[in-house]
């Protein structure tokens, strides 16, 4: 490993549009572990990528676009459905988007003739987070600047509605117990809801504002991470409602926090674009300093590969990939 933690992206893929958001498919579905979706001002692009870290005969990265969906409005968020399968006949691609017009769109495609989308309307302000229930994929949760968290079925009907005390910034579903939902608010409160009882069961406090992003660690669901102000914060929910660990990382305010999918000690953060560039950092809880730092001219979005210690960020007409060690 280089002594200097700052480095350029290991791989890049050119895109036809500015990339606002990018998401690896987090679910194991046939050979779709490397499905990737990214959204720009008008389009959502679904592609596959294979890396030399997993296939010996690949040099660097092998990327292929499967389909481009016309979206007509800026894409702000993307969530994959666990129903997505590339190994079925015909294949099934299913995902939803949040957009600048405050609507959710649910896309279904067989990558051939069937390409449908349904609009889910109800939010009255920008949508900051959305996620499918990870087991069955039959519900979608979303949070918004309108101070609500809403649960929708795939017909677009709201099945639950939680009133928040401030804008909802992030929402995560428990990977096993699908009646548990985590909602993070801008005022620094993170609440866990029981969807059966439709009430909050636990809350955490960041003591710092604004909280911009939070994420549930899927490798260890007692761990929650977030960024608020300039800092990253990590909670052990069995110990305290206050952060166990925190550190200032981003000068121009922190923007996104994402746990790695393969290690409970590895996570990434991004900062808001400063005068020159967006800062991107990978952290390991065993190291006092970031183990990798990068910068993107105009970066947005952040997602970890499902099986590799590899991150992607969207940039100006490109995707940028960084690789680290576990």
UniProtKB/TrEMBL annotation:
Component of the Nup107-160 subcomplex of the nuclear pore complex (NPC). The Nup107-160 subcomplex includes NUP160, NUP133, NUP107, NUP98, NUP85, NUP43, NUP37, SEH1 and SEC13. InterPro entries: NUP37, WD40/YVTN_repeat-like_dom_sf, WD40_repeat_CS, WD40_repeat_dom_sf, WD40_rpt. GO terms for cellular component: kinetochore; nuclear pore outer ring; nucleoplasm. GO terms for biological process: cell division; chromosome segregation; mRNA transport; protein transport. The gene is NUP37. This is Nucleoporin Nup37. Its main location: nucleus. Component of the Nup107-160 subcomplex of the nuclear pore complex (NPC). The Nup107-160 subcomplex is required for the assembly of a functional NPC. The Nup107-160 subcomplex is also required for normal kinetochore microtubule attachment, mitotic progression and chromosome segregation. The keyword Cell cycle applies. Pfam families: WD40 (PF00400). The keyword Cell inner membrane does not apply. WD repeats lie at residues 120-162. Keywords: Cell cycle, Cell division, Centromere, Chromosome, Chromosome partition, Kinetochore, Mitosis, mRNA transport, Nuclear pore complex, Nucleus, Protein transport, Repeat, Translocation, Transport, WD repeat. SMART domains: WD40 (SM00320). It is found in: Chromosome, Centromere, Kinetochore; Nucleus, Nuclear pore complex.
């Amino acid at each position: 490993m280089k002594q200097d933690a700052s480095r350029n992206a290991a791989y890049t893929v050119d895109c036809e549009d500015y990339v606002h958001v990018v998401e690896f498919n987090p679910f194991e579905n046939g050979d779709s572990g490397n499905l990737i979706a990214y959204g720009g001002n008008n389009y959502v692009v679904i592609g596959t990528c294979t890396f030399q870290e997993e296939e010996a005969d690949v040099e660097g990265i092998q990327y292929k676009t499967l389909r481009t969906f016309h979206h007509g409005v800026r894409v702000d968020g993307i969530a994959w459905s666990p129903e997505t399968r590339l190994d079925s006949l015909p294949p099934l691609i299913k995902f939803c988007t949040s957009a600048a017009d405050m609507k959710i769109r649910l896309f279904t495609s067989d990558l051939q003739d069937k390409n449908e989308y349904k609009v889910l309307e109800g939010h009255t302000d920008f949508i900051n987070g959305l996620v499918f229930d990870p087991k069955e994929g039959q519900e979608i949760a979303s949070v918004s600047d309108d101070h609500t968290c809403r649960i929708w079925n795939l017909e677009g009907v709201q099945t639950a509605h939680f009133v928040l005390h401030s804008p909802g910034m992030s929402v995560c579903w428990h990977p096993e117990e699908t009646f548990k939902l985590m909602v993070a608010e801008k005022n620094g409160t993170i609440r866990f809801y029981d969807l059966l009882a439709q009430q909050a069961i636990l809350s955490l406090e960041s003591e710092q504002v604004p909280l911009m992003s939070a994420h549930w660690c899927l490798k260890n669901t007692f761990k929650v991470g977030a960024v608020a102000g300039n800092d990253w914060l990590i909670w052990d929910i069995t110990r305290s409602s206050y952060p166990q660990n925190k550190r200032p990382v981003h000068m121009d305010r922190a923007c996104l926090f994402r746990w790695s999918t393969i290690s409970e000690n590895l996570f990434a953060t991004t900062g808001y674009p400063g005068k020159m560039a967006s800062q991107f950092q990978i952290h390991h809880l065993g190291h006092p300093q970031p183990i990798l730092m990068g910068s993107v001219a105009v970066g947005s979005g952040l997602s970890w590969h499902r099986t590799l210690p590899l991150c992607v960020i969207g940039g100006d007409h490109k995707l940028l990939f960084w690789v680290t060690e576990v």
